[in-house]
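Amino acid chain
________________
===
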Amino acid sequence: MKQLYLECNMGAAGDMLMAALLELYPDREGFLKQMNALGLPGVSVTCVASQKCGMTGSHIRVTVNGEDEVSEDVEPDDFHGHTHDNGHEHSHTHEQDHIRSDHFSHHDHFDYSEIETLINGLQLPEQVKADALAVYRLILEAESNVHGVPTEQVHFHEVGSLDAVTDVVGCCLLFHLLGADSVTASPVHVGSGFVRCAHGVLPVPAPATAQLLMNIPTYSGTIRGELCTPTGAALLRHFVRHFGAMPVMATEKIGCGMGSKDFEAANCVRAFWAESENGTDEIAELSCNLDDMTPEAIGFALELLLQNGALDTFATPIQMKKNRPSTMLTCLCKREDREKVIQLMLLHTTTLGVRESACVRTILCSTFFSAYTNYGAIRIKVSSGHGVTKYKPEFEDVKTAAQKHGTTFDAVYKQAIAAAEAHF
């Protein structure tokens, strides 16, 4: 079982989260190469060593046409005077007035459909695109609530900029590549004071950030500045299953993502990584019998459950009372997701009850690495444990490469296998 714990004692920002996760990923150069080849206009992503309060880590720098953005923290006694860079990501609240991109240069704000078009056009696994768009939908809903307007009338400012898109996509890609079975985090330090945004001077946490962090444990403190940005809050809300104390885990790696500003405390996000030796975990098996649903409706329910955190779903033909041919729908999920999954099963099927049993799985621990072929980089899933090692090219990567190069699926798959064999 692969565990990831995020320590947010100095808040969370997209660039800091990306740097912390990148320190856990074994192929740093491959990741940076992939990010810089996405085709985001004018975007450059680099990673440099950084040190805070004697701690060493990494700092991610995202520039657009050679420029990078910073946020402005404001002293309460001088809203129109001296400002302070808080050292987190290029501010993703509302301090930037326009996007510096040839593609988007015709106006200074963007709606969700434009962000969706941009992300869907990137050469990324479908799951990464789906995660990135889900993060933006969270921000969209928060902005809608804050400004009191329908979601279709919300226009992004800073969080729609190319540097913000890069942060969101980069974090989603790293979460995908690491493939953690469990993602937990500490309560989130939000900072204090004020921040200057496109709409004016706002209190910390900024309204959109506060909305995104609802029902998540947070706290303030003596450090003045915006420690948690809307982008960081949305990423945490999407990926983290539980907030609280660090779980019992035998930590194998620690990633440290640094901000640029120096505070009295080390300005960083730490990511703790562990893989259990015994390769076992506990899951919930949920099932129900269905004798009055069409195959299409059952298929819809199966897909919906997978999209909402189920580990696996399947339908089994069964014979019920009075010799009725029926279907048993079974869903496997993490224990912490059981209530949500049960609710979805009750809502989207005709069943009147869901059976539950606890199961212990013996599993192989999986990681990913990129194999380079004539058709580009193909991710290889490597699963090992209990004296067994298996590796397999990712279907979506092979399919995308075959379509892009006008060749067969089999040709790309065989090259990926050959590259994997050479690697091992």
About this structure: The CA atoms of residues 38 and 123 lie 6 Å apart.
